[in-house]
User: Fold this.
Amino acid sequence: MNSFVYNIPVKVYFGENQLIHLGEELSKYGKRVLLTYGGGTIKKIGLYDKVIEEIEKAPETLLLPLGPKVSNYLQKVLKGTEYEKNLLPQIPHPSGANAERIAYFLGKKKKEDLSAKTNPDKIDAEKQEIQKILRERKI
Assistant:
């Protein structure tokens, strides 16, 4: 398996109207930015439309869901839109409950040392798909 870096620094803006900073933050990273978000209420509260409006300012943004719930949600939300192609396969959510999956994803734990709860074939397939997409887009 190819080497892979799993580094997710987080900057959070709290308070009203903080979404206005999204374009500013995205522009710091060039034309191609990896943006992740999740939660079932994003459309209910109107945040989805505002996020899409900001993403349109950076059309090459890639969306990397953290965990299956976020992945399933984004697949439904983006289906049939021009942004569907920007959705990468999920990676393990960085919670303590996923420590083993993350360790395997990062190559820090061998396949034969995994518990029965971890599906290495699924993790390998998702990782390979992410790497393939990144290579195709020359990222």
